[in-house]
Amino acid sequence: MPRDSVLRRLAHVPLGWRHTVQTRALHRYLRWRSTNARHPDILAAQRRERARIRSEKGVRWGRPAARAA
Question: Whole-model pTM?
Answer without folding.
Answer: 0.43
